[in-house]
Specification:
Layout lengths: L1 E4 L5 H9 L3 E4 L5 H7 L5 E4 L7 H6 L5 E4 L9 H6 L3 E3 L6 H16 L2 H9 L17 E5 L3 H12 L3 E5 L5 H6 L3 E2 L2 H7 L2 E4 L13 H5 L5 E5 L8 H9 L3 E6 L19 E3 L8 H19 L14
Parallel strand pairs: 1-2, 1-3, 3-4, 4-5, 6-7, 6-9, 7-8, 9-10, 10-11, 11-12
The structure holds D-malate.
The site of D-malate has 9 residues, from loops.
C-alpha cells in the first residue's frame, strides 16, 4: 500500500511507515493540479497545514482510505466530503499541546514584562526603561477559554506561577474543569474577571468572532488577550481598537484571519501587540510527536485496526 506525504513530516514518522511495509512518496509543495495526479494509487495521505483536502482532491483520489493530519486543527480538510468519499480523517490531538501551552505562557510573560517591545527598542537605539514598567503574574487571574489538552497544561503553568486560574468550556462539566486545574466560570464572568485571557478552542461556527467588539468591551479594563488557537476567533479590527483606546493593556496573537499576515495589516502597527507566525506547534519535540502518532495511527488503520482519533465515520 502507498502513503503520500504532501507536507513536511519528521523522519521518524516516515520510518514507521517504511518499517510497516508501506511504500512512501514524499512530495511537498505541489500545485493542486500536481497533487491531483500524485494522489492516484495512494491509500493514505499525510498532511499538515498546507495541503487543502477539498472535494476536487477527493474526487481525483481513486484508492484513498485515510487522511491523517499530523497536528490538531483540521481547517484544511473538507470532512463531510471525505465522509462522502469513504475516506477516514484523523488527527493527533494532544501531541503538540505542551508546545502550544508553553507558547501561550511565553506570550503571557512577554506581554507582562514588555519583552518584545524592549528588544525592539534596543535594536532601534532606544533605552525605554521608564516606559516599560511591567506587571507580575503572581496573584493575577488567568482565564482560559477551552479546557482541553492545551487549556489543562496552561492551567498547570498558571498555578505554577501562583495565578488564580478560571476556566470556561461548554463541553465539560464543572467537576471536569476543576479536575483540569481551573475554577469553572460562565463565559461572561471569565471576561469580566480575568487579567489575562488565553484562547484554546478550535475554530467552529460557534467560536468564530467569539471575541467580537461587544465581548472585548466586556473584558476587564487593562486586561491582556492571548490567541494561540485559530485566526478569526478574535475580531482583529476590534482588537486593534481595544488596544489603541487603552481598553486592553496588551495582546498576543500567534494566529491570524489571513496567514501569512499581510505586510500592510493594521496589527503590525499596534505597539502593545506581540505577534508570532503560527508557532504554537512548532517545536522539535511536537513535530516528532505528531509524526510518530500519525504514522502509527494510519498504519494501524490501513492494516485493518481501529481508526484511532478519527473525526468522521464513513461507514455510517
Ligand atoms: C495545530 O492545529 O495543531 C497547529 O495549529 C498546527 C500548525 O502549526 O499549523
Amino acid at each position: 500500500m502507498k502513503i503520500l506525504v504532501s507536507d513536511p513530516l519528521h523522519e521518524k514518522g516516515i520510518q514507521i511507515f517504511k518499517d510497516q511495509g508501506f511504500e512512501v512518496e514524499i512530495k511537498t509543495g505541489l500545485s493542486p493540479e500536481d497533487l491531483h495526479q500524485a494522489i492516484k494509487g495512494v491509500d493514505g495521505l499525510v498532511i499538515r497545514s498546507a495541503t487543502q483536502v477539498n472535494k476536487e482532491l477527493l474526487e481525483a483520489a481513486d484508492l484513498l482510505k485515510v487522511v491523517g493530519r499530523a497536528d490538531t486543527g483540521l481547517d484544511n480538510v473538507d470532512i463531510p466530503a471525505a465522509t462522502e468519499h469513504g475516506v477516514v480523517v484523523m488527527n493527533t490531538p494532544g501531541q503538540n499541546s505542551n508546545a502550544a501551552a508553553e507558547l501561550a505562557m511565553g506570550h503571557i510573560f512577554a506581554l507582562s514584562r514588555h519583552i518584545a517591545r524592549g528588544n525592539r527598542g534596543i535594536k532601534d537605539g532606544k533605552w525605554e526603561k521608564k516606559q516599560l514598567r511591567g506587571r507580575e503574574l503572581k496573584g493575577k487571574t488567568l482565564g482560559i477559554v477551552g479546557m482541553g489538552n492545551i487549556g489543562r497544561i496552561l492551567a498547570e503553568l498558571g498555578i505554577g506561577v501562583k495565578m488564580r486560574v478560571i476556566g470556561f468550556d461548554p463541553f465539560l462539566d464543572d467537576a471536569e474543569i476543576k479536575a483540569r486545574g481551573a475554577e469553572p466560570v460562565p463565559y461572561e464572568d471569565l471576561l469580566a474577571q480575568a487579567d489575562y485571557i488565553s484562547i484554546h478552542v478550535p475554530k467552529t461556527t460557534e467560536t468564530t468572532n467569539l471575541f467580537s467588539e461587544a465581548n472585548l468591551a466586556k473584558m476587564k479594563d487593562g486586561a491582556y488577550l492571548i490567541n494561540c488557537a485559530r485566526g478569526g476567533i478574535v475580531d482583529e479590527v476590534a482588537l486593534c481598537d481595544a488596544l489603541s483606546s487603552g481598553k486592553l493593556a496588551g495582546a498576543a496573537l500567534d494566529v491570524f484571519e489571513v496567514e501569512p499576515l499581510p505586510a500592510d495589516s493594521r496589527l503590525i502597527y499596534a505597539d502593545d501587540l506581540t505577534c508570532t507566525p503560527h508557532l504554537g506547534a512548532n517545536t522539535f519535540e511536537a513535530q516528532e510527536n505528531v509524526a510518530v502518532a500519525v504514522a502509527n495511527q494510519m498504519s494501524a488503520y490501513l492494516k485493518g485496526g481501529p481508526a484511532e482519533f478519527a473525526v468522521n465515520d464513513p461507514k455510517k
